[in-house]
Please model this.
Amino acid sequence: MHLLTLEPSFAAWHRVARRALQAEWAWDTVLWEDASDSQLALGLLDETPASVAQAAVSAPTYSVPKAFMDMARTVACHRSAHRWSLLYRVLWRITHGEHHLLKVAVDPDVHELHTMEKSVRRDVHKMRAFVRFREVVHEGRCCTLRGSNLNITSWSSMPPSSLTASPACSGPSSRRSAASTGMA
Model:
């Protein structure tokens, strides 16, 4: 059994999963662990075990559908602790003979991936749809924001249910800048 500990982000999972795949570690021989978990198993915090790094030198290359990578980026933002093992299991199956797996909607793994993806997308939509803005007056006056006399605060009235609090899940696609809201 191989224990892989990683930071809870798609980039970290992608890097470690690629190395594990090149080392030919089957999905059922790998245990995934978030580095953000409060109780790490024996403090093993090595994303690149020596055996994985050595295997990567003469490893085969695999082709993965773009649809899987897009789905994996979204599912990585899900709060479920087993998202990494599910993603690796589907990746293993795709690269070892089931290249069209994502088209099989009745497959339990594919169904669970779609459910997680849908949950994350719904929560992102709710966070955007229910964001509210209000002008705030501090000590009787408004603060200046680049030449205007506005001091704006914002909040979301709907807390997300499935999203992780990882900063990796709050990239440019899920944030609105002051310029895009006309505040700059």
In short: The first strand starts at residue 2 and ends at 6.
